[in-house]
Amino acid sequence: MFDFPASPAVGDVSNGYVFNGVGWSGGPAIPTPTEQFFICDGMATLDVQVPAWAKGCEINGAIYISNTAYLMARVSMDGTTFLAGASDYIYSGAQHNSQGGASAYITYAGAGTTGFTLSATGNNGAYPINVNAEMILARALSTQYITSKSYAKNYNSTASAGYLTYWSQDLLGGAPMGSGLQVKALRFLLTSGNFGPGSWLRIKWLGGEVPQTNGTVPEAPADGWQYTRVNGVWRPTERTFVLDGLLQQEFIVPSFAKGVQINGSVYTGSASGLPGLHISTDGTNYIAGSTPYTVMAMYHDSGTSPYYGTQGAVAAPSMQLGFGGDNLNVPQSFIAEMGLVTATTIIGCRAHATSYRNTAPLGTRTVLSFNYTNVPAGTQRVQKFRLINGSVVTPTLAFAANSYCTVKWLG
User: Fold this and answer.
1) At the N or C end, where does the chain have fewer CB atoms within 10 A?
2) For residue range 256-291, what is the model confidence (pLDDT) as tens digits?
3) CA 342/CA 228 separation, integer angstroms
4) How does DSSP assign 33-46, residue by residue?
5) In the CATH hierarchy, which top-level class contains the domain 237-410?
């Protein structure tokens, strides 16, 4: 025997909808956001209310600093007062410096601090803190902890100068949270100074089901892109492109986009092949040549000692989203994120990639890299970019079969 739920009666209410005898009509009076974007220029703090149904969130952004500082987040259990005690939060993780030496690797074993730590400490305001983080915002029991996991890149230009890669998982629980189960608000701040020009954060809330409001909505364009509706307007958000046989795939940047995420898997057909990027800030000409881009990286080889290596600043003809491999039967997989607007002279892109080598250094190579190029002073925007095969001036090598990439606009 099966137990079926009772049929709704006329007048029954669920999630703001009313059953009228035929179907559900109406909807919540105030739509609940699932994703929000914030321009942070000049702010000392950014306070964000957490939807009541949210169990967690994803955070990414680009933050410019004005002093020696790092990015931090604090939580509020009542929506007003933010936890900021000296040891309310416990942070642990690791940091890598692209210049190597004694400070190449630093381990944080666990220490008390005043907020979730989302990046390493940097002091160069021309280079943004590029951050990706995930936070748990609710717990079932008061004995449980909530966590924040972060992956970030930024730059330090004085002692032990170099690009910093930061991984962490922070904890919050116990006495600071008391008996509270749900985070009501988040506060983002720098440990010194205000957010600089060009700073932004995007938050995607994760959790319960959010009903749509009732009404007639025009269909989204049928052009291959996935769309989301923002303030009554359809915006392209994400699309997957098949790259088989292409020398390049070009992308025109929509006006609302502040950043882009690119991930893919490519068969290069050549040991010299790798996924690369050229950008254009005028919408016509790509920044191209033998040395206009700079690449810095750390890498790990699974089968050859020494397992870890560092590549300092190297001039290159493209941004490199991967570092190549001579086993052409294994795809090069990559995840990259690039800021598309800058108020300084730097456009930067970070990438995480894997490939495989049959020759020394043998095995799987995992690479974390930061690429950048200089653009004219003043606010600049990437108008278009292209994905190419190889670190070359002019694309001449086609991607092999079963290659693809997915692009997601942020803004």
Assistant:
1) N
2) 999 999 988 888 988 889 999 999 999 999 998 999
3) 25
4) PSEEEEE-TT-SEE
5) mainly beta
CA atoms within 13 A on the CB side of 386: 22
CA 374 to chain centre: 22
The reply to whether domains 35-207 and 237-410 share a CATH topology is yes
Return d(Cα 45, Cα 169) in angstroms, integer.
22
Beta strands in 11-70 (DSSP E): 13-14, 17-19, 24-26, 35-39, 45-49, 54-63
Cα separation, 371 vs 351, whole angstroms: 8
pLDDT of residue 398: 95
Quote the CA–CA distance of 8 and 21 in Å, as a whole number: 8
Please tell me the least confidently modeled range out of 30-44, 72-86, 111-125, 241-255.
30-44
Residue by residue, what is the 3-state secondary structure of 276-296? Answer: EEEEECCCCCCCCCCCCEEEE
Dmax (CA) for the chain in angstroms is: 73
CA distance 136 to 56: 4
Share of the chain above pLDDT 90, in %: 39
User: Model-level pTM?
Assistant: 0.59
Nearest-5° Cα angle at 285, 284 to 288: 155
pLDDT band at 347 (very low <50, low <70, confident <90, very high): very high
Nearest CA-CA partner of 119 in 79, 197, 37, 64: 64
What letters, b where the CB count within 10 A reaches 16 and e where it falls short, cover 382-394? bbbbbbbbbbbbe
Which whole number is the average pLDDT over 13-26? Answer: 52
pLDDT category at 99 given cuts 50, 70, 90 is: confident
Helix (H, G, I), strand (E, B) or coil at 94: strand
Closest by CA position to 279, among listed 267, 268, 292, 291: 292
Residue 294 CB coordination number (10 Å):
19
Alpha carbon distance 268, 363 (integer Å)? 18
The domain limits of the chain are 35-207, 237-410
Q: What is the pLDDT of residue 306?
A: 58
Sign of CA dihedral 4, 10, 16, 22: positive
CATH architecture, domain 35-207: Sandwich (2.60)
Rounded CA-CA distance 274/251 in Å is: 18
